[in-house]
C-alpha cells in the first residue's frame, strides 16, 4: 500500500502530534505576549512551575504514544512517507522545545 505524503499527513496519528507541538509552542508564545503586556521583560523562570509549564510538558510527553502507534502501524506499509511525516513531527517538536532551551525556562 503506497500512499502519498498528503494522504499520510491526514491520518489522525500523524497530525495529532503536529497539533500538540504547535499547541505547546503557542502556549509559550501566548505566555510571552502576556508577560510583555503586563510589563515584564519576557518569560522568566519561576521557582514553582506554573500551569503553562505543566500543560507544555503534558503536550510534549503525550505525543510519544501517538508517535509510537503511528510508527508501528505505518512504517511497514509505507516506509518512505512515514519517515517524511516523522521528519515533520520531529521538526515541530524541536520548534516547541527551542524556546525552552534558548530562554532557559
Description:
This protein is mostly helical. The protein has 4 helices and no strands. Helix 2 runs antiparallel to helix 3.
Brief overview, please?
This protein has helices at 5-9, 12-37, 51-74, 79-102.
Question: What layout of secondary structure does this protein have?
Answer:
Elements: H1 5-9, H2 12-37, H3 51-74, H4 79-102
Please state the structural category: mainly alpha
Kindly report how far apart the N and C termini lie.
44 Å
The count of β-strands is 0
Low-confidence stretches: none
Shape: elongated
Sheet with the most strands? none
Helix content: over 70%
Helix count equals 4
Notable characteristics:
mainly alpha, 0% strand
Amino acid at each position: 500500500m503506497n500512499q502519498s505524503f498528503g494522504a499520510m499527513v491526514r491520518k489522525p496519528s500523524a497530525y495529532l502530534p503536529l497539533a500538540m507541538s504547535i499547541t505547546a509552542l503557542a502556549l509559550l508564545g501566548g505566555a510571552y505576549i502576556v508577560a510583555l503586556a503586563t510589563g515584564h521583560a519576557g518569560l522568566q523562570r519561576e521557582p514553582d512551575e506554573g500551569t503553562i509549564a505543566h500543560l507544555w510538558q503534558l503536550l510534549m510527553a503525550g505525543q510519544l504514544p501517538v508517535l509510537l502507534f503511528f510508527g508501528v502501524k505505518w512504517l511497514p506499509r509505507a516506509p518512505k512517507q512515514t519517515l517524511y511525516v516523522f521528519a515533520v513531527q520531529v521538526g515541530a517538536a524541536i520548534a516547541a522545545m527551542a524556546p525552552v532551551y534558548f530562554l532557559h525556562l
